Amino acid sequence: MSAPATDDQHPAQDGSPLFLLDELPDAAELVVGDAEGRHAVDVLRLTRGEPVRVGDGRGTVVEATVLDAGPAGLRVRVTARHEVPAPEPEFVLVQALPKGDRGPLAVELATELGVDRIVPWAAARCVTRWREDRVEKGLARWRAAARAAAKQARRPRVPEVADLLTTRQVCGELEDVDLALVLHEQARTPLTGVDVPRTGTVAVVVGPEGGLTDGEVVALRAAGARAVRLGPEVLRTSTAGAAALAALSVRTRWA
Q1: Staple 18 to which of 47, 53, 81, 206, CB 3.0 to 4.6 Å?
Q2: Which EC number applies (predicted)?
């Protein structure tokens, strides 16, 4: 049996669950196994004939129908295949390391609200410090949170979680974006007062619980970033990025 034709239309959002595979074969039938398959069978209780989506997390998504659900996971028949383009503009979140479990929470919320790339930042006043022997563990937790949230939001693309950067490295990244915004409670310009491009890359910088140092503010501005405020309230570092992404999406992607 030949695989269905590929198109570049986004699959309709009809409530079907999304499963992610590291590789998505170009085949008429697929097997969703391992943890994804166990979740489908034991938690979602999917049965023969139900619609599902399967993607590779990089924009390729297939619509499929369950043929069999059992201990080995799901066996599905592919009915359509889509190549979903990356959204515009690209959203980058530079996130200072929050304390405790708030790092994965920040990643989860940002993913659900449309972030495309997340840059962990070792800011000066971060309470949390990823020691050299814990960097990979921290990155793994953030990347797992991004993948899980992408499935929850039924996003065809899992956001990239970059390596941990210093302030100097963050400034280098900001020099290449089309618009860089630093959330700062003392900024005079509201986020709503900034012209946001509909294409290119928009970066949002969120500081740590202790706030930004004067040196960091100077360095970020020298890299081209603009200081803005979200509103009269001061949000937690783990939620501020998500709030900014939602506001930016309303003005660009959802407009």
Answers
A1: 53
A2: 2.1.1.193
Measured between alpha carbons, how far is residue 123 from residues 118, 131, 174, 205, 222 in Å?
15, 14, 15, 11, 17
- In SS3 terms, 66-128 reads as EEEEECCEEEEEEEEEEECCCCCCEEEEEEECCCCCHHHHHHHHHHHCCCCEEEEECCCCCCC
Q: Which domain CATH number covers 37? A: 2.40.240.20
Residue 23 Cα distances to 31, 99, 114, angstroms: 11, 34, 23
Mean pLDDT score of the chain: 92
Cα(161)–Cα(135) distance, rounded to whole angstroms?
13
How far is residue 84's CA from residue 228's CA, in Å, rounded to a whole number?
A: 32
Mean pLDDT of 231-245: 92
Q: In b/e form, how buried is each residue of 50-60, taking b as 16+ CB within 10 angstroms?
A: bebbbbbbbbb
* pTM listed for this prediction: 0.90
Please count the structural domains in the chain: 2
